[in-house]
Design brief:
The protein is mainly alpha-helical and 76 residues long. The protein is 70% helix and 0% strand. The chain has one domain.
């Protein structure tokens, strides 16, 4: 998604979620607005596709070989 202009908006967020996002931003050396942009872009992609993000599916599919036996047991 191309970045054009930025626009301010206000909303309310669960205080525990906001605290976690602040901690995450600090630990990654990023601004909260960068995490919000990322989260909103992920939400838009997820809703448009109606399925998990491609990076999530790639990680899941790559786990099949080492964990096939476990997955079979969990499916029972």
């Amino acid at each position: 998604m191309a970045m054009s202009s930025r626009e301010k908006f206000a909303t309310q967020v669960n205080s525990e979620i906001l605290a976690t996002v602040r901690d995450l931003a600090q630990s990654e050396g990023r601004q909260i607005q960068a995490l919000v942009d990322e989260a909103l872009a992920d939400l838009i992609e997820k809703r448009r596709q109606g399925r998990p993000r491609s990076s999530v599916m790639a990680a899941y599919m790559s786990s099949h070989e080492p964990f096939a036996t476990l997955y079979q047991k969990l499916a029972k």
